[in-house]
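Exercise 7 asks you to align residues with tokens for two separate proteins.
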Amino acid sequence: KNEAVDDFVAREIRRGELTIGESPALPDVSAIRELLLREPVIWERHDEIGDPEAIAMRALHMTMARTLVASALAKARVKAPSAWDDLHALWKLARTLDGHPQMMVQTAALAMARMINAVAWKMPLPAPAWLGELQSRDGLLTLLDSFQHQAASYWKSGARMFPTKWLA
């Protein structure tokens, strides 16, 4: 986890200014960006609630997400059209999580879409066509499905989880 990158992304998302501040030193995301843009990535599925591997994978996804956003912002700061490539890779990363019913995976995908939306207005014009797909996508049904999956998993395991089990 890179706190400087996290702080930069959080600051730029909160800022209501078109001007983008100075970025910290950023890791090179070119390999992950090119992979995500080139081919679909399939992640191992973890169905158990509280699975440590699933928790670690979500942390990895969110670290990649924030780093791609930071890279996009740094490029947009100098008006580089390639800034959109980093956000497109992030959108593709979010879409790789579509088949996973776990709530924490779906909230990660939703957070990624929200990050893209939060910084897209700072990117150089014109906006790419894929942004329309992101903006028209309704993630509510997927999120509700994941909530149902989680509630069913609690019920099946006999766990005495409150309030999620009772809310379901």
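Second protein for Exercise 7:
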Amino acid sequence: MKDFEELCEEVRNTLKERMLEITKKNVLGPEDYESLLEEEERDVMYDPYDIENLLGEIGCPICRGKDGLFIGKCLAPGTGAGCNIDYASCERMGGKRIGSFHTHPIGGTTPSVPDLECSMVRDEEIACIGGYDGEEYLVRCYRPRETARKYG
């Protein structure tokens, strides 16, 4: 547990601002949803691709390089969580993957079952989620416990 706490502190010190920037850019706040609902009432036609782009998730690997942690290549909206992240971008950018970061367009920062499954399958040291929770944008990081990893 101590190693995870140290990693969380390193992520907080190194990547917090970048993760919050990605979250604020890609996750709608309550005012944005209100204006969307008003627009939808005026125009009942919509394009499913617009909805996917609007509510899609952005996913990025968390990488460790010789100079510390960095965010790898972020994939476009609609990519989902950990299992769809371009982990190879860590190597292309001179690092090694250690985990993932993705946004949740709806539902705050609590990991979904697929998020947990992907984190375990990829044997991530850390997985972080950015979203709108309560009255603010937040990023929370987690790691499935050893018991969950052992029994899947």
